[in-house]
DNA sequence: ATGACGTATTCTATACGA
């Protein structure tokens, strides 16, 4: 049975409960992975989501920051959440579907402003986080798995509005791209979005600070859908719901979708 | 080059986002 999955950095699930419901009603993915819920798990507004058919949730949360959740119409089994780099943050959760597919939902650290770990501890934490994830996949090679989330790195030249201008901007520096590539390689992950849409500019995030985000279009592709190579050929139908960036009181991220025939 | 905006908590200021 094919299923459709979406990943969305929601930037407060409680403040944006209404647009989460709008997405669930209008697009009806089978599974929705959220990042930056900024809420303890027990304060996520599950009743509204449940009423729309999303009766299953696996989540990790904390007060104020971070937080990841997997909402689903399909039954889920909690497959754990790891505190990579021992930051004490809720940035990862995994769940397994009845078809045996495990979904990993990540919110990788943003990394601060200065791309130098000697002067900016957060940048080092971002690199260390990716290194720990890389080593975990190397030690235990995933199979039948999907990895989604806000990875906070736009790896390709056509994942950003201006490659040259962003080479020294956190999210597009060569060392971050290298760390992300090593993490991808260690799990034999296939970038499903770029498998489906191999060419051309593609973004999933636009800053709140632009006067007209749509007109300026200074975006970055920070949100990703990967799958292990054994199921990558089942992935198709990738798209970014750019319109959601223009909804009322939007997140600065747009949802990214993919469908898997499994 | 800078600053632009938005959210949550510590709440009329600060930390964080990228």
From TrEMBL:
GO biological process: DNA repair
Keyword DNA damage on entry: no
SUPFAM superfamilies found in the cross-reference section: DNase I-like (SSF56219)
Active-site residue numbers: 107, 150 (proton donor/acceptor), 253 (proton acceptor)
Site (Important for catalytic activity): 223
Segments forming domain Endonuclease/exonuclease/phosphatase: 6-253
GO MF annotation, one: double-stranded DNA 3'-5' DNA exonuclease activity
UniProt keyword terms in alphabetical order: Hydrolase, Magnesium, Manganese, Metal-binding
Domain of life: Bacteria
Family according to the record: Belongs to the DNA repair enzymes AP/ExoA family.
Name of the protein described by the UniProt record: Exodeoxyribonuclease III
């Amino acid at each position: 049975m094919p299923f459709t999955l979406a990943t969305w950095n929601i930037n407060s699930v409680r403040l944006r409960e209404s647009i989460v419901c709008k997405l669930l009603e209008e697009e009806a993915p089978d599974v929705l992975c959220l990042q930056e819920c900024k809420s303890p798990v027990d304060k996520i507004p599950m009743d509204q989501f449940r009423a729309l058919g999303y009766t299953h949730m696996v989540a990790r949360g904390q007060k104020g920051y971070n937080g990841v959740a997997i909402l689903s119409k399909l039954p889920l089994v909690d497959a754990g959440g790891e505190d990579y780099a021992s930051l004490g943050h809720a940035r990862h959760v995994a769940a397994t579907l009845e078809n045996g597919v495990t979904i990993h939902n990540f919110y990788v650290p943003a990394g601060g402003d200065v791309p130098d770990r000697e002067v900016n501890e957060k940048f080092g934490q971002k690199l260390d986080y990716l290194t720990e994830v890389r080593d975990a996949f190397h030690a235990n090679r995933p199979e039948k798995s999907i990895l989604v989330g806000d990875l906070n790195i736009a790896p390709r030249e056509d994942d950003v509005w201006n490659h040259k201008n962003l080479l020294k901007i956190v999210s597009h520096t060569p060392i971050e791209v290298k760390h992300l590539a090593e993490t991808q390689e260690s799990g034999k992950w296939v970038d499903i979005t770029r498998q489906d849409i191999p060419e051309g500019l593609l973004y999933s995030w636009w800053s709140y600070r632009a006067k007209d985000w749509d007109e300026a279009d200074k975006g970055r592709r920070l949100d990703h859908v990967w799958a292990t190579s054994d199921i990558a050929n089942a992935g198709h139908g990738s798209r970014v719901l750019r319109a959601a960036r223009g909804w009322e009181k939007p997140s600065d991220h747009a949802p990214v979708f993919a469908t898997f025939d499994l």
